[in-house]
Specification:
about 400 residues, Rossmann fold, 13 strands, globular
Length: about 400
């Protein structure tokens, strides 16, 4: 059992949505945090049929229990709420009239947003559960994380390859396509492969459309589908106060480094290889985004910076206060620092950090910090990385 970092304290006083990709551990987390909660699990066929046929059945059962906000000890848990979005009308009524608190858990906000765009009129804040993070895993193993991914069953188990292949084959290629009623399944499958191969790179819809044999608007819709089903995230370009001409196209990362590896059918990767460097950058992206959602949501989201002359910084944090470049080298040299130096000259961040496989931390004469990946993550999760100096 992992000690998940996400703070669910808000859910003890308010109704909440909890979103997360399939197998991130949402159900396990909620059952652990709220062992005495009333649970409606819509993955169960009989539960699903009851609620589809009569969405009022949950209200009737809670009224039969005499449950109100005044005597409620734990929130009511509804798992996979996106399967029956019609329940939200009943839930809305129970929140308003009975004062009952809910945690509405799901792996896709897409159907809910399409059917109930107001998401209970703002009465239920949305939280997100990410795959496992460095700070949640005792004895963290970087090679295991980069090869197997950070979904709990994949990181922990010895059968990660068939599990990841099943996730890709059944869930990504079939269930996600079915949810969006994708008409051209071969094109969508090609898109998934290309999206994985270009993971972490700038998104140019026209180029990907040409490779997939569909239109650019269709490719854009495919990316939006991955984002809405929590299977990937856009990383926007940082364009504030630009003196140099900068690239404005976003980058896109899949939600898990292991799933990206399964989609690209890559074998085991080892330190020093190009694939290790790409996977390390993806992993650091996962940690940064999880930290932002769990601990730092008031700050602007992470971004990246790239100029037309190919100078770049992988991650810009706290609206330019911290610049982070990721390299898999064991001994960072001057050519690895070119992007950070250009960003420092233009934006004067509080900290400019190169995350690498170096053995020990050091600082260059012009103030760039070279941090081993573990030191960087220790500082990030301790709250020291973004602390004003």
């Amino acid at each position: 059992m992992y000690n998940r970092i996400i703070d669910l304290g808000l859910c003890t006083t308010h109704s909440c949505f909890l979103w997360g990709a399939r197998q991130t551990g949402k159900s396990t987390l909620l059952r652990e945090r709220f062992p005495n909660a009333v649970i409606f699990d819509l993955l169960l066929a009989d539960e699903y049929r009851r609620c589809v046929q009569d969405p009022s059945v949950i209200r009737q059962e809670l009224q039969a229990r005499g449950l109100t906000g005044a005597n409620q000890m734990a929130p009511v848990l509804i798992d996979e709420i996106q399967k029956v979005p019609e329940l939200l009308d009943e839930i809305h009524w129970m929140i308003e009239r009975m004062g009952v608190r809910f945690i509405l858990c799901g792996s896709s906000a897409r159907k809910v947003k399409r059917g109930h765009a107001n998401l209970l009129g703002g009465r239920a804040p949305a939280l997100s559960l990410h795959p496992l993070t460095y700070a949640e895993i005792p004895g963290f193993d970087l090679a295991r994380a980069l090869n197997q991914g950070l979904l709990p069953p994949h990181y922990t188990g010895d059968q990660d390859v068939p599990l990841r292949n099943a996730y890709v084959g059944t869930y990504l290629h079939e269930e996600i396509a079915a949810e969006a009623a994708v008409r051209n399944l071969p094109a969508f499958s090609r898109f998934l492969d290309i999206a994985a191969l270009s993971n972490g790179e700038m998104v140019v819809y026209q180029n990907i459309a040409r490779d997939c044999g569909v239109s650019a608007p269709t490719v854009k819709a495919y990316f939006e589908l991955l984002e809405q089903t929590l299977l990937g995230r856009f990383l926007p370009a940082y364009t504030r106060r630009a003196r140099r001409r900068v690239i404005q196209a976003p980058r896109f990362y899949l939600f898990d480094v292991g799933i990206a590896g399964a989609l690209t059918r890559r074998g085991r990767i080892e330190p020093g290889s190009e694939l290790w460097g790409r996977a390390l950058e993806h992993f650091i992206f996962m940690e940064i985004t999880a930290h932002h959602n769990y601990r730092n949501r008031r700050e602007p989201p992470p971004a990246y910076w790239r100029t037309a002359s190919q100078l770049e910084v992988d991650f810009v944090l706290a609206d330019g206060a911290v610049a982070v470049e990721v390299k898999s080298t064991r001994l960072a040299r001057d050519h690895d620092l070119r992007g950070l130096r250009a960003f420092k000259e233009e934006h004067r961040p509080r900290r400019a950090v190169l995350v690498s496989m170096d053995a020990k931390p050091r600082r260059t004469d012009d103030g760039i910090e070279v941090l081993p990946w573990r030191v960087f993550l220790d500082e990030l999760w301790a709250g020291d990385m973004l602390k004003a100096t």
